[in-house]
Amino acid sequence: MERISDLFIEHFGMEAGDPLRFPDPEPAFLEGFSLSAAQGKEGSYRSLFCGPLWLGGPAARQRFVRALRSLLASYRLRMKIPREGPVLVCGIGSEGAAADALGPKTASRILVTDKNMRDAGLPSVCAFRPGIPRETGISTAGLVRAAAKETGAALVLTVDALCAKSGERLGTVVQVTDCGLTPGSALGHSSEEISRETMPCPVLSVGVPTVVRASALPTDPGTGKEAPPAPPLFVTRADTEAMVSCYASLIASAVNGAFSGNLTDEDMFPASRA
Fold this sequence. Notes:
Layout: E1 2-3, H1 8-12, E2 22-23, E3 26-30, E4 33-39, E5 44-49, H2 58-78, E6 87-91, H3 102-107, H4 115-119, E7 125-128, H5 133-136, H6 140-151, E8 155-164, E9 173-177, E10 203-213, E11 218-220, E12 225-226, E13 234-235, H7 240-259, H8 265-268
Parallel strand pairs: 6-7, 6-8, 8-10
Antiparallel strand pairs: 1-2, 3-4, 4-5, 5-9, 9-10, 10-13, 11-12
Helix pairs in contact: 2-7
């Protein structure tokens, strides 16, 4: 039986055209976290169920970084991305909106390597925050494509906020996929996708659900009744800013470890040294 991907497709646009579908995911565990994985014709996805990490301690966060770093490294090998890169990390979204700031905040924490660092043996890693069309007047995909061509990227790695299917998914799962994404599609915005078909190189996407449709929330949690039809309205958590800041730091640490060299946990968590 085939099913719609639990998170990514909601961002891709479940209501438009023929959505991507995957077989039932295979359950597994990674660093103590539940992991679901599925392979479809268009690509694959991995969902890491990590819980509300921003409310937990440093041990869980370090396990999460190791798990995500492992996932990213495995995709790098499967996609045959050379260690030297270049890898272009694109922070999709707007830093002006807390629930949409995951991408830009992550990109600002990426270990970018300049010419001197590359000459010293570090892989080529670039970071880019393309903004949103409302801010730039240019399509996000167009800006990412231009940056990928300019840098000669061997891989575009996007980080973006997702739309969850239910309130309990907000900030409790991270998804990695090589299917690409369509910025703004969860909000019903028409946009060009960022994928292997539209970019000059493969695309790997990392996302965390930060909003949920209000219509997906029950009217009364005690009865389980669904909310009545209403105009599209999205809600998020009261502590979204803390949630997004936490994930931006953790995702950046995992990306740095997977693509910028063999960084240790002490390198990635200097504040945790006692």
